[in-house]
Amino acid sequence: VRPMSSDFAFEVVHDDGLHVITLHGDLDLANARRVRDVLVDVAGSTVVVDLADLGFLDSSGIAALLGARSRILASGNQFQVRGARGIVRRVLEVTGLAHLLTE
Question: Are 82 and 100 in contact (CB under 8 A)?
């Protein structure tokens, strides 16, 4: 787990072309750009972002996920988001982005 601030960290696991990035804490303006860069940097055959341990997601976090998704898909790779619950899931539903979720 790589801490970025006192309330956010991420973990990257690579297994046979599949990259799973698990986000912990709050994804907001303070760390959104770094998360986007990490997602794009680890693009493999499939990038899976696990939000199960994410407690907060703001518009900067949404923009980071969408920006990474766009670049990953444009490069011919796959992008999935899973595990969103609570307020994070609600934010994705209210913004019309729940279609990004795979379970």
Answer: no
